[in-house]
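ok trying again, last paste got cut off:
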Amino acid sequence: MLLTITTTHAPATDLGYLLHKNPARLQSFPLSFGKAHVFYPQAEPDICTAALLLDVDPVGLVRGRGAGDGAMEQYVNDRPYVASSFLSVAIAQVFREAMTGRSKERPALAQAQIPLRAQLLVVPCRGGESLLRRLFEPLGYTVTAQNFLLDESVPDWGNSPYYTVTLEARCRLADLLTHLYVLIPVLDEDKHYWVGDDEVEKLLRRGEGWLAQHPARDLITSRYLKHRHLVRAALARLVENEPETDEVEQAHAHQEEAVEKPLSLNEQRMEAVLAALKQGGAKRVLDLGCGEGRLLQALLADKIFEQIVGMDTSHRVLEMAQERLHFDRMPDRQAERIKLIQGSLTYRDTRLSGYDAAAVVEVIEHLDPPRLSAFERVLFEFARPRTVVMTTPNVEYNVKFEGLPAGKLRHKDHRFEWTRAEFQSWAGRVAQTFGYSVRFLPIGPVDEIVGPPTQMGIFSYGT
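nice, full thing came through this time. structure:
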């Protein structure tokens, strides 16, 4: 079984520093089930490819076991030839340092998002190409899959469950290796070793930062752990802190409201966003990061909007939105116009496709900067609404708020707040990359020196 990882980040041979493996020589590593070999088919300044070749000893796998039933099956199977849990173990052992995201020689590069392409020469996927896409596309990968016939000489037998898979993304190498480590056994839905309680800890450790919000979280957990009691334990651990997080988030949101309340800034934002959506002719609208549903309430009150979808990462916040919108006593005709879904803006989600417009109101500043590129692709490349209306604080205006200490952001969960120049630079780059145009409007009173308290970008596709 063969895994290759390629980068065009210059100098591309720095891939050797990230993998902690010298491109100039072949290296071999003994494993309990065979040997792993690392070599570089190409190592040039503009492109570098590292290969992990796994040589599994099929006889050694069963030596010493009792024959029992199905003795022949122990020797006649696909385990030595396809990417499976054997490859996950090899990745964890051979690329242990790379998976930590640290590099003594290239520390900044280890944390950087660089262009990467991984190819699994043959992988069994019990679920077909749709499962491949369901698992990897939400993580920001472009997936290419080549399926194989069971027997080329007998086409009527149909397709096999085997694929050559290519994954392309701009991401950290550590993240790519971690995703492969977890998801390869999920594709195969089989492991070569006993799945015990320690597998829960492995999954939670390797899934930290991405699994809890993955749209296929339950499926991944179920197929990775197999045993029902382990699945229940892992899922409980993944969501156990959500209520507390929601309470803290709501407290922080109220603090932000208190800072902005003298300007009635939230009301002005709602009016400006609604006006922009109407001007764009939108009838089917996404409210991404909908929170407690204030914009949803305004959209629902205007009959021009025929279909409305609110999405948020938190189940509890969506419940609060349902309460605000009185879902329990909403007329049927109104209920047909609106839907609430749980999801994350940094994972590709096919449910977001096909809408006229998306509103992203005071959301992007809550994203960690390294996740912005994933957000850009999810919204502008994959969902691709005709219009995107986005608002974010103007950090220059913060000096005008009496209740805000100097140097503090408006919300404790804000990862950043941009100046006007920073927002316009980012938005201009995104628009150019994905085929949009963008214009900017102020929201709130405009100060001659520091500008407005809120800045709004209106992205239009294809113009």
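cool. The mean pLDDT is 85. Residues 36 and 90 are 7 Å apart (CA to CA).
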